[in-house]
């Protein structure tokens, strides 16, 4: 990595500014730490720096039991926080490279920051929120032609194509068709995408989940168009997730509305019955639903779950206690289980 000298100096002075962004790996002990760790500092030739917990674990380093790097909040990059705040105040603004330059930010740096935090570029993120604002205006009775012109589309065909591509339907259908609402939600272990309708929560997944684009498209096909905008369920979801991550384990009250087969829904309902702080094996889950021979089917249903945390598939582990597959990444599964056990 570049800047290793600067990182080493930060390690020596226990600089918390790098916590959650840079990790130090000690080659002699095979342990990785926060740069602010109070442990004795190793020699510079015995360390390497990495950008993430996943990278450290991929190199076979174990988490330090003193500074507990996996418990550190995975906060948004400062540049991402700044632009998210700007977008929140003006979601209808049309962005391009020139507009980004006007506020003194390098476009490529901004692109990398958003890809790291949300798995998407800033311009795509901004475009999705802009179209979400447009949809809300039309649903509330705004004239489609006026909305098109206000949004900066001189061509009606261009406007129709943009709405259809990003949302999944054409402008004239916006008032009559059910449209789900999407929002990025920041958490201590990374950004999550939430998708809700008036009937409840359809999807809640970590941005880094490889299958997320497929899950979004699957949700569109089964439930209808989706656009980025606020919804009354998001206020409750963010409040309850905040309490969960702070250790206040209250029951989630948002209805689960994700689409699934009868068997999948049976498995998901049973997942929600696993108490916080406890785990089950796949075979125990199969027994719990009254079908002890359906172990593989239960595992597939777990993998098909699109609502993380609230439908706690992270509480299902291997029969030998191993951390089996988790779409949100194994380190998060371990983090969630430790968090729920007060560790």
Mean pLDDT: 84
Helix/strand class: alpha/beta
Tell me which oligomeric state these chains represent: single chain
* Count of alpha and pi helical runs: 14
Q: Please write the string of helix (H) and strand (E) elements.
A: HEEEHEHHHHHHEEEHEHHEHHEH
Residue share in helices?
40-55%
Q: What order do the strands of the largest sheet run in, or round the barrel if closed?
A: 3-1-2-4
Radius of gyration: 22 Å
CATH architecture of the largest domain: Orthogonal Bundle
The largest β sheet comes out as: 4 strands, mixed
**Low-pLDDT sequence parts:** none
Q: Strand share of the residues?
A: 5-15%
CATH superfamily of the largest domain: Homeodomain-like
What would a concise description of this structure say?
This protein has 343 residues and is α/β, with parallel strands linked by helices. It has helices at 4-12, 53-58, 78-89, 97-102, 107-118, 122-139, 144-150, 156-167, 212-223, 232-245, 262-271, 282-288, 295-304, 330-340; strands spanning 23-26, 31-34, 47-50, 62-63, 180-185, 192-197, 200-206, 226-228, 280-281, 316-317.
